[in-house]
Amino acid sequence: MSSLDAIVIGSGPNGLAAAITLARAGRAVLVLEAAAHYGGAVATEELTLPGFQHDTWSAVYPAAAASPVFESFELDRHGLEWVHPRYAMVHPMPDGRAAALARDVGETAASLDALHAGDGERWAAFAAPYLKHWEAVRRTFLGGFPPVRGALGLTRLGYSGLLDFARLVLMPASALGEDLFRSGVARAWLYGAAMHGDVPPTGAGSAVAAAYLNLMGHRVGWPSPRGGAGRLADALVDCLRAHGGEVRLDAAVERIDIRKGRVHGAVLAGGARISAPLVIGDLTPRGLLALAGDTLGERYRRALQRYRFGPSTLKVDWALSGAIPWTAPLAREAGTVHVGGSDEEVLRATARTGLQELAEQPFMLLGQQSLADPTRAPAGKHTAWAYTHGPHEVDWEGRRDELVERMEARIETFAPGFRGRILARHVQTPADLERRNANLVHGDVGAGSYALDQLVLRPVPSLAPYRTPVRGLYVGSASTFPGGAVHGVPGHAAARLALTATRIRRGGR
Question: Against a cut of 0.85, is the pTM above it?
Answer without folding.
Answer: yes
